[in-house]
Structures are given as structure tokens and as C-alpha cells.
Amino acid sequence: MTRYSIFSLARNAMGYHRSWPRAWRSPQPRPSYDIVIVGGGGHGLATAYYLAKEHGLSDIAVIEKGWLGGGNTGRNTTIIRSNYLWDESAHLYEKSLKLYEGLSQELNFNIMLSQRGVLNLAHNEHDLKELSRRVRAIRLNGIDSEILDPQGVKAEVPIANISPSLRYPILGASLQRRGGIARHDAVAWGFARAADARGVDIVQNCEVTGIDIADGRVQGLETTRGRIAARKVGLVAAGHSSVLAAMAGLRLPIESHTLQAMVSEPIKPVLNSVVMSNTVHVYVSQSDKGELVIGAGMDGYNSYSQRGSFQIVEGQMGALIELFPIFSRLSLLRQWGGIVDVCPDASPIVGKTPVDGLFINCGWGTGGFKATPGSGWVFAHTIARDRPHALNAPFALERFASGVLIDEHGAAAVAH
Amino acid sequence: MLLIPCPWCGARDESEFTCGGEAHIRRPADPDALDDAHWADYLFMRANPKGSHRERWCHSHGCGRWFNVERDTVTHGIVSVYRMGEPPPGGDGS
Ligand SMILES: Cc1cc2nc3c(=O)[nH]c(=O)nc-3n(C[C@H](O)[C@H](O)[C@H](O)COP(=O)(O)OP(=O)(O)OC[C@H]3O[C@@H](n4cnc5c(N)ncnc54)[C@H](O)[C@@H]3O)c2cc1C
Ligand SMILES: [Zn+2]
User: Fold this and answer.
1) DSSP 8-state code for residue A29
2) FRET pair for A63, CA 20 to 30 Å: which of A311, A317, B75, B79?
3) Which of B18, B50, B55, B68 is best to mutate for the A interface (most A CBs within 10 A)?
4) Cα distance between residue A312 and residue A156, in whole Å
């Protein structure tokens, strides 16, 4: 792997940038691997990278049916934060945020992490109470979080109207200053390049169509590019998790829904942080290109179409204008949908399955981009050691039978 | 945007309806006999198919009644609509 640096940039500038090497190989799949990861999104690529880096393994392939990061990794609104209510989630998402903070250096790839702060607005008495409960719980877990009064919100977000006479007045907000955004494609590409450099085969345009199981143990995969034998398989397919689980005869507590997002035309810097409002039901940030990145809730019915309903767009726009009338004359540039894998308790499933050698990482739903490095890190540990790390042990599939759910609906409703 | 034919009101815009998820999930006949795994299956596990899906919808901003819809989760095409308690047109609603 050629290291990216100011010197390699200068050297390549001399050659008119015609001789940059490819960032990763494009190998033919081999007939057999020690470990195969299904799904070349951020989580799958991170898993492969940490398997190689933390556990010294290299006989690994990542199998992706489309192109790298073409799923939710390349479709999300890139909000990163770790302000979750329950201890289990707080620890897992905080691990991920810590990994994010060193990721550009570690991968030698600029993921453009911008810790510009994430605000959650309160619009009524109940919001305020709920917010103060959350902020305290989060701080008890050693995670930065603070409460702003309306003047504090105004200082962070000058375009916010803090007049008390609005229909949804801004009475305060929580703020995680270490939260922010990152470049989603770069996260996938950075992990891909670093995993490839450690010998991982990344195979695109290869769809898994079947899972071979004999005597309760996984044997390999049927794919559109032939059979691939594997000692261990990790399923990291987000919206398609139920489809893959069904190939192994497993049922999951997951429903797939379309989640939409959209961007406006680019404008000059006007919004410096990420602003979310559960009550008005919208969130928005401004990208480095100047586009407003806008999101909200998901469509209300099961879907694999990556195409949402129009009234969701309409509702989202209404909420945005309610919050920031200043945006009312902007045009939208693009709108799109991704298929998110939603769990009943709005928490992920990361761990073993009843099939030996078959592992699953899914259910991140509307909020897994922020967890990409942490998810890969704990999943690699689980696969390599055949048992979960303490951080992901509570997120086992068995919690739906034991009843020990981790209800994060409050942290993962409109907020992703 | 879906155009959903309510069995009582006729075709109406999707925004008048609420989706209630997978249909034909039977309440266990003898709850006391169920172990944790079976409870988990009844309460939480879902088919979530890519393709034909039978689901419950409620015409919440219309007549307020529940009914069943068979819909393709990829094309969003509605295959059939039938009332609560009726067997699905394609058979096998157990
Ligand atoms: C509109 C939108 C906004 C979002 N906003 C945020 C946000 O602001 N912050 C946040 O933290 N999260 C957000 N999320 C959620 C986040 O995007 C996901 O939780 C996360 O990216 C999931 O990553 P992944 O790698 O597991 O999935 P993906 O990137 O979807 O990767 C799964 C891969 O598996 C592949 N695959 C599926 N089936 C097969 C098969 N049979 N064979 C081979 N490959 C297969 C797919 O092609 C896909 O590339 C958002 C999601 C959406 C859709
Ligand atoms: Zn009706």
C-alpha cells in the first residue's frame, strides 16, 4: 500500500496524477477461505480489517453483491454521536466514537471526521425533563454531554428562533460536542484499502445465494461467482439480513423499511452543527459542500425497494420549515432511500447464531453509521474468539428469548 | 406512493392508512405451555420476506377498519386485499 502523504501528493502532482496506484485489488474469489464476511458495507469491511489487524488473520474475503458502500453506508446522513441512554449502548457507541477519533490516522485515509457538535432540541416541558434525564445518564457513563438553555442554543445555532411564542418553542437542547459527521464513502474506502493491504480479498459484484450447513455447522456459501467454502461466516447485510438468515433457516426479529434522506442545493455556511428535533420530527446538518443534509423517520411498511413514499418527503420538508423558516426557498437537489434493518428494541444484534461458525451483525436500523468501527471491532473479536466481547455480549440474539431488551427508541427515533 | 383499495371505502391514498405489520400471526393457543424460545418467536420474529408479504393495514384516517393486504415488498405492487378473518386468496394463511 502506498502511503498517502503530502509527499506522495506532491510526487503524483508532478506526474499529473496519472500514476496513483489502485486503492485495493479486485481479485477473483478463491474456492475457499478461513473466514468469509457477507456484505461490503462499512460494518463488513471494518470487521475484515479488525480481524486482520487485531487478530492476525488474513485468509479472509468480503463478498459484496453490488459495489463497496453501495448500501446504507453510502446512503446515510453520516451523523456520529454516542449519547445513548442505557449503559450497554453507551459503552458500545462510545467505543466506536473513540475509534472514529483516531481513524483517519490509523487508516491513512481522510474520513473527514468533523466533530462539530450534535444538538437535540427540547420544545416542551416533557422534552426538557427527558433530555435532562438522558444527559445525566450519559455523563454517568463518562461521555460528554451538556444541557443548553435557549440562549446557549442561539449561540451554537444563530439561525434558531428562540422566541417563546412559537408553536414549538426551543426551550433548550442537549449537546454532545464530540458528535458530528464524517464522509461515509471514505469510511468504506479507508477500511477497504487498509483491509486489502493486510491480505483481505474484497470481491464485488458477487451475490450470496445460499448458505451450506451440515451437522449444524456452516460449510460455505453459494454465490453468483461459484461456491466458496469457509470455516466461519459473518453476515453483515443490513437491510437484507432476514433474507440471508432465511438461507440458514433462521428467523430474525427484524423488519426492513425504507429510510429516506435528501440534500438541498449548496449555500454558504449557515449551520455549524447537527440539529435534531424529535418533536418537530426532522434533523439537519450542512455538508462541507454547502448542501443541507436532511432526514427524519422511516416509511411505515416493509420494503426492499430503496424508494420511499412522497408524503414522507413532504412531512420532512414541513418539519424543516417549521424549525427553520429561513430554508423555505431552497430547492432540493437529491432524494433517496436505503433499506434499514429495524429491531423491536432499536438496538443491534451482534453475536453468534444457533449454527456453529455462523455469526450475525445486523439490526443497526436507522443509526449504524456512527457504530461502523466499533461494530467491526467487536464483531471481529466475536468471530476470531468464537465468543462475544464484553461490549457486544448484551446484544446477542438470545435477548429476545431472555427478555433483556435494550430499548433505545428514545435515542434512535428521528435521531440517527 | 401506494394507492390502497380499502375493502369498505375503495382506493385511497397511502397517507390515510397505517401499516400494522405481518398478518396471520396466531396468538398461542396454550400460552402456559410455551417456552421462552417459542414466546420469542411469537412476539418478535418476523418473516420479513423480499417479495410477497401479507400484512395488516388500518384505514385510520377513513373508516378506521383493519384489513389484510398482500403486497410485493420490492415492487410495492398490491396483489390482493381481503377482510379480517377471511382466508388469503392465494391460500395458506395459517
Ligand atoms: C437515509 C439514511 C440515513 C441514515 N442516517 C444515519 C446517520 O445519520 N447516522 C448513523 O449512525 N446511521 C445512519 N443510518 C444508518 C446507517 O446507514 C446503517 O446503520 C449502516 O450504514 C449500516 O452499515 P452496514 O455496513 O451494516 O450496511 P450496508 O452499507 O447496507 O452494507 C450491507 C451490504 O450487504 C450487501 N448485501 C446484501 N445482501 C447480500 C448478498 N446476498 N450477498 C452479498 N452482499 C449482500 C449489500 O449490497 C450492502 O452493500 C442511515 C441510513 C439511511 C438509509
Ligand atoms: Zn376504509
Assistant:
1) P
2) B75
3) B50
4) 28
**pLDDT tens for residues A220-235?**
999 999 999 999 999 9
Q: Where are the beta strands (DSSP E) in A215-371?
A: 217-223, 226-235, 255-264, 274-277, 282-286, 292-302, 332-342, 349-352, 358-362
Mean of all residue pLDDT scores within chain B:
94
Nearest ligand 1 atom, CA A184 = 21
ipTM of the complex: 0.95
Q: Give the dihedral of Cα atoms A138, A139, A144, A149; nearest 10 deg.
A: 90
pLDDT average, residue stretch B2-15: 96
- Measured in residues, chain A has a length of 416
Cell numbers representing residue B90 in the block: 392465494
Q: Long-range contacts of range A22-26, CB-CB < 8 Å, 24 or more positions apart?
A: A23/A189, A23/A192, A23/A193, A23/A196, A24/A192, A24/A193, A24/A195, A24/A196, A24/A197, A24/A202, A25/A196, A25/A201, A25/A202, A26/A202, A26/A204
Residue A291 near residue A265 (C-beta atoms within 8 A):
yes
Q: In this structure, are residues A259 and A340 in contact, taking their beta carbons and an 8 Å threshold? A: yes
**CA–CA separation, A408 and A346 (whole Å):** 5
Contact A312, A299 (CB under 8 A): yes
pLDDT at residue B32 tops 70: yes
Using alpha carbons, select from A328, A329, A340, A343 the residue that is nearest to residue A369.
A340
Q: Are A223 and A205 in contact (CB under 8 A)?
A: no
Contact between A289 and A331 (Cβ < 8 Å): no
Do residue A300 and residue B45 have CB atoms under 8 angstroms apart? no
From chain B, the residues in CB contact with A401 under 8 A are: 36-37, 39-40
Q: Is A301 helix (H, G, I), strand (E, B) or coil?
A: strand
Q: Which domains are delineated in chain B?
A: 3-25+38-83 (3.30.2270.10)
